[in-house]
Design brief:
Distance between the termini: 44 Å
Strand content: 35-45%
Largest sheet: 6 strands, mixed
Number of strands: 8
Shape: globular
Oligomer: single chain
Strand order of the largest sheet: 5-2-1-8-7-6
Structural class: alpha/beta
């Protein structure tokens, strides 16, 4: 089992997780890593082809996939390490997670862990 240390670990590679990672890097946090269980980072907007994303944060009217790509590109440009197809499977301690990925099991120790696992939209009937 591989062991890794980072300054900040973010669980969830959607807009919230990526925005948090970008802000941490802008504020001097050196080693920021995002883990995302899906094959691609970007979250639910990757599947939402309607426009309307990005007005508040990017001051642009974007479709979901373009919005997600803009966040992924900005995170990579900021120096964030994004690990996709990676799932947090066990809390080992307050600052350690076990992660399962195609490369195998890994224990990640972090000075701070942020959960940004998001929420999925549901139809009215599903909420009732």
């Amino acid at each position: 089992m591989r062991r890794t240390e980072v300054d900040a670990l973010i669980v969830g590679g959607g807009p919230a997780g990526l925005a948090a990672a970008i802000e941490l890097r802008k504020n001097g946090v050196k080693n920021v890593r995002v883990i995302e269980r899906e094959k691609d980072a970007g979250g639910v907007p990757r599947h939402s082809f309607h426009p309307g994303y990005g007005l508040r944060d990017f001051k642009q009217f974007l479709s979901g996939p373009r919005y997600a790509k803009k966040y992924v590109d900005a995170a990579v440009a900021a120096g964030v390490q994004i690990s996709t197809s990676s799932t947090a499977t066990t809390w080992i301690s307050e600052y350690e997670l076990e992660v399962t990925a195609p490369s195998g099991l890994e224990v990640i120790s972090a000075r701070a862990i942020i959960l940004a696992t998001g929420a999925r939209e549901r139809a009215r009937a599903a909420r009732a």
